[in-house]
């Protein structure tokens, strides 16, 4: 594509930059669609008096994964998050509405969490609704399983590259047009 057609992206001055920017833009839109799907589908399966947000839904499914209790650090690692206080807030919320149970880890001061009976029932209901309204649509796409497999591997590869780039960017000193401050003299004037 010619640069004049790059949708005016300030981030794209070459074909590669354009394609990366378009991918990132698509990823942002996909994330929003996915979170909206999770939230609305979750509302179908959860009683009206339970108010949990997208992140709590995802955390509940991560806890349910492999039907093994998980602590907040494991949940953070599985989700590629580093905001453990926010995860702990979500865990308290899930526990307060009865979707998870807190278990004290053996020989430790930490806790793990497992889906409660209600949490299992609701995640099973979510599965049924998801299968009916999403999976059946996805199956209409030619070679969808192979596309998901390739896409998941590609996203995992990109996750590592973006993580490394984020670490590198954390070491960059912001540039300003202002001159650096002059050191203060420790000598007192007479």
Automatic annotation (TrEMBL):
<feature type="region of interest" description="Disordered">
    <location>
        <begin position="168"/>
        <end position="190"/>
    </location>
</feature>
<dbReference type="Pfam" id="PF13463">
    <property type="entry name" value="HTH_27"/>
</dbReference>
<dbReference type="GO" id="GO:0003700">
    <property type="term" value="F:DNA-binding transcription factor activity"/>
</dbReference>
<feature type="domain" description="HTH marR-type">
    <location>
        <begin position="45"/>
        <end position="146"/>
    </location>
</feature>
<protein>
    <recommendedName>
        <fullName>HTH marR-type domain-containing protein</fullName>
    </recommendedName>
</protein>
<dbReference type="InterPro" id="IPR000835">
    <property type="entry name" value="HTH_MarR-typ"/>
</dbReference>
<dbReference type="InterPro" id="IPR036390">
    <property type="entry name" value="WH_DNA-bd_sf"/>
</dbReference>
<dbReference type="InterPro" id="IPR036388">
    <property type="entry name" value="WH-like_DNA-bd_sf"/>
</dbReference>
